[in-house]
Amino acid sequence: MKSLITLSSICLFAACSVALADSHLGKDTYTKHCAACHAPAVANALKAPAFESKVDWKARFATATKASKADPKKYPTAMDYLVAQVKNGLGAMPPGGMCADSSTKDGKCKDAVYQAAINYMSGNDKKKK
Questions:
Q1: Which of 3, 34, 53, 81 suits a disulfide with 30, CB 3.0-4.6 Å?
Q2: Residue 29 · residue 99 · CB < 8 Å
Q3: How many CB atoms lie within 10 A of CB 53?
């Protein structure tokens, strides 16, 4: 029983650490690469979903969910669709957004970085906690 409690505590700590790391990554990515266009003061003019706008992000996730259901091989999840939109560019957003990562061969951010930024901007990272 004692080992079960210890194991459960370790798993809970690990899950919290991953959620916290994702939140920090999302916040850092938003601040460095996304805020210029997704800040509420400018997002509407660019037709971009605004930071923490429930209305904007609900619409984006609804579109993403429909796309995922229509083509689950291409977009297994709604998040896969949203990441693809960032990578391909959408509207005024260039391919990859403004995200750059000097640690990768092509200089582009990884999918996990885009996911963390989307979760942070949409407020989904707060729902995990």
A1: 34
A2: yes
A3: 19
In sequence order, the β-bridge partners of residue 90 are: 93
Question: Could you give the CA distance from residue 71 to residue 40 in angstroms, rounded to a whole number?
Answer: 31
For the chain, the distance separating the N- and C-terminal CA atoms, rounded to the nearest angstrom, is 27
Q: Mapped to the 3 state alphabet, what secondary structure does 60-80 carry? A: HHHHHHHHHHHCCCCCCCHHH
Length of the chain counted residue by residue? 129
pLDDT in tens, the chain (129 residues): 555 444 444 434 433 334 445 569 999 999 999 999 999 999 999 999 999 999 999 999 999 999 999 999 999 999 999 999 999 999 999 999 999 887 778 888 999 999 999 999 999 887 655
CA angle 20, 128, 114 (to 5 degrees): 65
